[in-house]
Design a protein that fits this description.
Length: 171
C-alpha cells in the first residue's frame, strides 16, 4: 500500500473514498464534516439519516459508508473519532479503531484509493503528534490486496510537517 501526504482540502481530492471525521449523531457538524456536507450536497445527509434510522447513532471508533453526492469520490466513509481526554490509552485505542474500521469498510467496498483527514485533531483536541503516530502505524500495519493508496490530507501546516517527518524520517 502506497502512503502519501498532501496539504489541502479533502473535498477536492480525487480518490475512490474519502473519510469524514464525523460525530456520533451523523447529522453533520463543523470542521471537515461541515466541509464535506457543503461540498457534497444534501444526498450525503440523507444517506446519514437513513443509517441513523436503521441503526441509531454511530459509536466512537466505528465507521459507516454513504454515497458521496457531488464529490468526485464514490464513497464517504464516516468515522467517529474520540474526544481527547486524560485517558490516553482509551483515546488512542478508539482513534486506532477509526483507521482500522474505515480501512476494513473500504476494502469490503473494493476501494483502491482512500483519503483520510487528521481525525480528532480539530474540535476534538487530540494531540496532533500522537494522532499522526497512531494513524501512520495503523495504516502501515494494515495488509490489503485491494487498497493500493492511502492519502493523508492535512489541512494545516503543522500536521503536514508531522506526517512528512513520520513518513520520511531524516537519515
Ligand atoms: P474532529 O472533531 O475529529 O477533531 P475536525 O473536523 O474539527 O474533526 O478536525 C479534524 C481535522 O480535519 C483537523 O486537523 C482539521 O484541521 C481538518 N480539516 C478541517 N477542514 C478540512 C478539510 N476541508 N479538508 C481536510 N481536513 C480538514
Amino acid at each position: 500500500m502506497k502512503i502519501e501526504v498532501i496539504k489541502g482540502d479533502i473535498t477536492k481530492i480525487n480518490t475512490d473514498a474519502i473519510v469524514n471525521a464525523a460525530n456520533s449523531s451523523l447529522l453533520g457538524g463543523g470542521g471537515v464534516d461541515g466541509a464535506i456536507h457543503r461540498a457534497g450536497g444534501p444526498q450525503i445527509l440523507e444517506d446519514c439519516r437513513a443509517i441513523r434510522n436503521r441503526q441509531g447513532k454511530c459509536n466512537t471508533g466505528e465507521a459507516v459508508v454513504t454515497t458521496a453526492g457531488n464529490l468526485s469520490a464514490q464513497y464517504v466513509i464516516h468515522t467517529v473519532g474520540p474526544v481527547w481526554n486524560d485517558d490516553k490509552e482509551k483515546s488512542s485505542k478508539l482513534l486506532l479503531d477509526c483507521y482500522k474500521n474505515s480501512l476494513l469498510l473500504a476494502e469490503n467496498l473494493g476501494v483502491k484509493t482512500i483519503a483520510f483527514p487528521n481525525i480528532s485533531t480539530g474540535i476534538y483536541k487530540f494531540p496532533k503528534e500522537l494522532a499522526a503516530e497512531i494513524a501512520v502505524d495503523e495504516v502501515r500495519k494494515f495488509q490489503s490486496d485491494i487498497i493500493e493508496k492511502v492519502i493523508f490530507v492535512c489541512f494545516d501546516e503543522e500536521n503536514e510537517e508531522i506526517y512528512k517527518k513520520l513518513l520520511n524520517p531524516p537519515l
